[in-house]
Amino acid sequence: MPIVLHLIRRRTRRDVPFSSLMFLSATTPRFESRKRVEHRFLLALRCIALFLLVLAFARPFFASPPPALATGTGIRVVLLIDTSASMRRQGLWEAAVANARAAIEAAGPADRVALMAFDRETRVVFGFSAWAAMAPGQRTAFGAERLAALAPGWAATDIGRALAAAIDAIIDEEAEEGEGTTPVMGRRVVLVSDLQQGSRMEALRPSDWPAGAQLVLAPVRATGSTNAAVQAVVQAAGDEAAESLRVRVSNSTDAKRDKFSLRWQAPGAAALPIDVPPGATRVVRLPGRAAGITQIGLSGDDDEFDNQLYLAPQLAPAVTILYIGADDGTDSAGPLYFLRRAFPPTRAQTPEVLARKPDDGRIGADAAVAHLIVVTAPLGATALAALAGHLGRGRMVLW
Prior knowledge:
The protein has helices at residues 2-7, 40-58, 92-105, 128-133, 139-148, 159-177, 335-342, 363-369, 381-392, and strands at residues 75-82, 112-118, 122-126, 186-192, 213-217, 228-232, 245-251, 259-264, 272-275, 281-286, 295-299, 308-310, 318-324, 350-356, 372-375, 396-398. By secondary structure, the protein is of the alpha/beta class. The strands form 4 sheets. It has a 5-stranded mixed β-sheet with strand order 3-2-1-4-5. Strands 9-8-11-12 form a 4-stranded antiparallel β-sheet, with no helix packed on it. Strands 14-13-15-16 form a 4-stranded parallel β-sheet, sandwiched between helices. α3 packs antiparallel against α5 and α8 (363-369) runs parallel beside α9. It is elongated.
């Protein structure tokens, strides 16, 4: 483009002074050949300017090899292995253990290795000191033994916190060795994870990645391509369909199928079909929950680790409220009348209001089981002692 623009000129070869042209016939001016290049330096500057503009928009990345380590020194390696719930998918955990074992076997005699397992939290499986205390010939077997004791759990994934903990472990080890600001040994973090979508990285934002620290990714991939998950949706108080349950079904972004089914885990329970496109989420109401049924099953995907939803039994806990006063609750202006209406039975709790006169002998036994005591009349010594014991158990009195 700059070459074409450079060759486009709208001027003749030269200007010749001449007198009046009124006696000459008009002819088309003759322009210089456009194939001839003039002002080559200007053309080069234009080409360079356009090239730099394209390069700036392209934002190329030039990889440089890591700095060479000093002769005879090793590397501090923190091996991070993901034990979150997503690692329960088919084939993931076996591949993760194989990658972690390969990283341990690749460690040299002068290297120091620490193993950390992470999900929502980060746990140290063994540190640098335990590795250094082992003979070089025993370290591989030691690391494999500790790896075999690990298993994926059910928590979420926080990669940011795990990476921050790994760097902190390296820096703390350097401080104990007295290496100062210039580390003698290299730094490396090996991350073994499925790098699932939704992994949290917020913990890395307020910190800077230290210079010279390498991050080596050892990702693992699930053999299945469709993974759907089921979750319960919290129902608001006063839901008109208390016997049913709203559930959320989410499908993976790379799913090959979009048809699933939900059912209560009970004999003869009918399946509820549901269509969830890849990467989408659907909320449906699952009716017909019977007493004692606490499990929902999802079918139709490749991974079963998140296809079961366990629910707590529908139990309304009893709450005992002891009222000590002179009124009997029939007076619409009295406290007991309003107290009984302030705590109606709900699905979350079943309140029981016990009304007692100030001289009632049952106050001591009732105060021992009451969650709240409301007093609207003067009390005798026996009732006051019962209230003191109630307060001593960390409970509440409204006087």
